[in-house]
Amino acid sequence: MKSPFLFGRTVSAEGFTNRVKEIKRLKANFIHQVNTILISPRRWGKSSLVKKVSDEVKSRAIRIVQIDLLGIRSEEEFYKVLATETIKATGNRLEEWLHACKTFFKHITPKISVGSNPVEDFEISFEWHEIEKNYKEILQLPEMIAAAKKIRIIICIDEFQNLAVFREPLLFQKRLRSEWQHQQRVNYCLYGSQHHMMMELFERQSMPFYKFGDVMYLSRIDRAEWISFIVDKFRETGKKIDAAHAESIAQTVQDHSYYVQQLSHIVWLNTEKVATTEILENSVNDLLEQNAILYTRDTEELSTNQLLFLKAIAEGVHKGLSSIKTIEKYRFGTSANVLKIKHALMKKELIEERGGNVYFIDPVYELWFRKFVI
Ligand SMILES: Nc1ncnc2c1ncn2[C@@H]1O[C@H](COP(=O)(O)OP(=O)(O)OP(=O)(O)O)[C@@H](O)[C@H]1O
Ligand SMILES: [Mg+2]
């Protein structure tokens, strides 16, 4: 029997639970042509949510173009992927794609490569000196295709914060924004993690993408939802877990989507018929062990002060870290120093600030840290 718990890839059908409110809101945005910005910490379920809603909305009249910025290192590469994916998503066969290449490019000559498997190996690329002058033609391509085919297009761009690695990120954002804002048939859903960077891109008045659309902060999936999800999945696969143990799984990992699935998976594997407290405890140890290499590496890269800062948080100091008492206790030196340490840890994505309090971002790293570092 296969494990009913999935992690490490997007889930959209059986593995997916709840998010009823978010599905409704995102779906309404897709249907009513509102641009969306979706932000959450790593592994809470952005990609899964967008996939789920895309699957529900896509039709002959509404096409979805999916782009992941994670592997894209330059503006040039972005144009290549945007053109390729748009043409693929708006036509059904190779002939249609080739026809689109002939029809829609006026000032640019696309280079087309087709491999043995056209669906996988179809790719358009450009000479940089041509797009440097005519990049607008590529940014306008989706709108032109949509108008010609009388369809709508929703372009979903994952890991959007990754544009920071481009040579001139600000100029690039200005280019996108100035074209995108005029488009009638094309909408955008931009999503990513790294809270501080996404906030910077979308919440600062001076930035090109300020007030570009509906900014959604994904929240955790409710505890009650996880409990019934876990209990049901065990039952469906001929095993048993009671609500209290299911709750304990969700609570241990603070309702973090990825870790709830991972820990549930381990408990499920360790359970022959009925999950027990002992099985749960062993499973938590397995979980820590499976993640230990990563956590050890992250921890080795910390300065002494950063370690002490995490120690303070792990010991329950979530606010007032620059108070005289705390500075003395943990020997941070000055309050300016505390600020510096905090920013460094935020940049490393180890901590986050919520309502003036500081927390670990990764709940399992926190568990591991408490157990093995302090
Ligand atoms: N609605 C959901 N129901 C059940 N599990 C979910 C749900 N959303 C996410 N998960 C779990 O969390 C994992 C991470 O989800 P996903 O990749 O969608 O998150 P993400 O926010 O896009 O992550 P990343 O920061 O890595 O891009 C999934 O593999 C799955 O195990
Ligand atoms: Mg993702």
The 3D shape can be described as globular
Task: Summarize model confidence as the mean pLDDT.
Answer: 93
Number of helices: 16
The CATH superfamily of the largest domain is identified as: P-loop containing nucleotide triphosphate hydrolases
Strand content: 5-15%
Instruction: Output the strand order for the largest sheet.
Output: 2-5-6-1-7
Q: State the domain count.
A: 3
Order of helices and strands: HEHEHHEHEHEHEHEHHHHHHHEEH
Bound molecules: adenosine-5'-triphosphate, magnesium ion
Task: Provide the fold topology.
Layout: H1 20-31, E1 36-39, H2 46-57, E2 62-68, H3 75-90, H4 94-104, E3 111-113, H5 118-121, E4 123-125, H6 128-149, E5 152-158, H7 169-180, E6 186-192, H8 195-203, E7 214-217, H9 223-236, H10 243-252, H11 257-270, H12 277-300, H13 304-314, H14 324-330, H15 335-347, E8 351-354, E9 357-360, H16 363-372
Parallel strand pairs: 1-6, 1-7, 2-5, 5-6
Antiparallel strand pairs: 3-4, 8-9
Helix pairs in contact: 1-2, 3-6, 9-10, 11-12, 12-16
Bound molecules: adenosine-5'-triphosphate (ATP) and magnesium ion.
Adenosine-5'-triphosphate (ATP) binds at residues 6-11, 15-19, 40, 42-48, 193, 257-258, 261.
